Every structure is written in structure tokens, then in C-alpha cells.
Amino acid sequence: MIVSHLTLRQLQAIRAIYDAGQISAAAEALAVSQSAASVLLSQAEATLGTRLFDRTTRRVTPTEAVEQIIGIVNRILSDVASIDAVMTDLKELERGVVRVAATPATGIALLPRTVERFLSAHPRVHLEMNDCAPDQFFSLIREEKVDFGIGIPPADRADFDYRVLHHDPVHLVCHRTHPLARRPHVAWRALDGEPLILARRNYGVREQVEATIRAAGGTPNVVSEIGFLYSAEWMVASGMGMAAFPARLAQAIRNPEVVVVPLVDPVITRTMAVISRRGRSLSPPAQRFVELLAADLR
């Protein structure tokens, strides 16, 4: 006897025949022919190695064997129905958890509108945001502590899959009284020797900014290194220097003493992507979050 060889359809036949007391009525409930229901019962009995019902021309009578297992059969079928309900809810975004990693700067610049729209549309889906430090970002994805991250694509794709969502141009952030603040746009060569407030090395667009200034014939003059957007905001507002940030992040600054100006010649961008562990698919709720974010960044 190999109980694991019982099929779901055979279990449904056992329950239907037990409940109906007749094979014909059970067949109707199962939406199959009477002969098909009889075959399902015979197959189940052969697998179990015992008779489950005594048959007469008018009815079937449960044996002691089926009385002993009918509770288990009902629980199995109930659990299967629960699986179906959970899968339906996931597909229809009525339940689930979405775990997202993003640095604080990325969160401020890209996520508020998307998070608000997602929670409003799908209040029964739990959203977990991990506002990690940049040096923790890829580890969280690699170790699958989050479903995906929003950030700069990895240089090494061995462990990751990613989809580019947005190319964000880098803008100058300077004090409103600085001469460059009055220009409609600023060429990179104009930053030669200017006091710069930039992110720490390996953070944000630090390397891009320095390399672009050098390529334009200038010399970067970094006077302060920061780890948080708000540090740059008050430092620029206090006249300590100027900063360069992706446009969406720069536009999150609301200080009236600070002006944001596009940088040109050349225009450089920060590429933002949704990044997941290689080979891992996203759940329907996670896919929906990414779809909303992609739409918001267009």
C-alpha cells in the first residue's frame, strides 16, 4: 500500500461519495460521469488495499476503513483549498509581503509616491522597507533578506539580475547667492577648484563627479565628505561649498537658501535599477510594486 499514490481527484471522490451516499450523486457533485466516479473509487481502494464502501444497487455504505480516514481526507482537501485561496489572494494582491532595500537617499528621491500608491491600492499587502547603508545594500539582496533592492546596478552580475528603471541626470546644488546659481545650466568645467561637498568614496555619484570634472580639464576640490543628504543641504545653505546630486535627490531639498541647476557638457546620469538575487522570481505583489515604480519614474 502506497498512500502517497493517492491523487487529489481520488480523495475528492472518497469525500463526495461519503457525503452523498450514492455514486450517481457524487458523480454529479464532481462533474464527472457515474462510471468515472466508480473508477476513481476503485483506484483509491486498490491503492489503499481495502474496501471503503459496500455497494448495493441503490446506495453505498461506508466501511469502518473509510470512517477512520474521512476526517483526514477532509483536512487534506481543506488544506488544498487553503493553498488555492492563498495563491488566488497573492495573484489578486489581497495578501503577501514585499521586502525592499534602498539607501535613505534613494528612498527620499524615488520611493514616496510609489509607496503611497501601492499601500493605497493594496492595503492587505505588508510592505517592509529596509533603509540600509550603501555597503549593506548588495549583501541584503544576495542573502535574500529582501525581495529586491532599488539602486545602482552591480558591477559584478554573478549573483544578481537587474532591470534598469531610470537614468537620473546629475545636477549642481549651490547657495542661492553663488554666481553659478543664476545660470540656466552649468558646464562641468565651471566646477574647477570650487569647494565641493561630496558623498564618501564608493557612495552615490562621488566617482562620477570627480572623473567628469577631471575629464573637463578641472581639479576636484573636495572640502567635506558626507553620508547623508541632509548634511549636504545644511552645509550648502551655510555657504560651505556646493554639491552634485542626481536630479530627483537634489529636488528633494526644500531649503530656500539652496538652488538646483542642471550640469551639462556633458550630461551624466545615475542609472537606477531594481536588483534581485540571480534566478529568483518576484511574487505578484513585488512585481506590482516594481510596475508602479517604473511608471512613476517615466
TrEMBL record:
A Pfam family per the record: HTH_1
Residue stretches making up the HTH lysR-type domain: 6-63
PROSITE patterns: HTH_LYSR
TM segment ranges: none
Protein name, per record: HTH-type transcriptional regulator CynR
Keyword line: DNA-binding, Transcription, Transcription regulation
InterPro entries, alphabetized: HTH-type_LysR_regulators, LysR_HTH_N, LysR_subst-bd, WH-like_DNA-bd_sf, WH_DNA-bd_sf
GO CC terms: cytosol
Transcription regulation recorded as keyword: yes
CDD domains to which the protein is assigned, alphabetical: PBP2_LTTR_like_4
Family: Belongs to the LysR transcriptional regulatory family.
Recorded superkingdom: Bacteria
Keyword hit for Transcription regulation: yes
Source organism of this protein record: Pseudooceanicola marinus
Record GO terms (molecular function): DNA binding; DNA-binding transcription factor activity
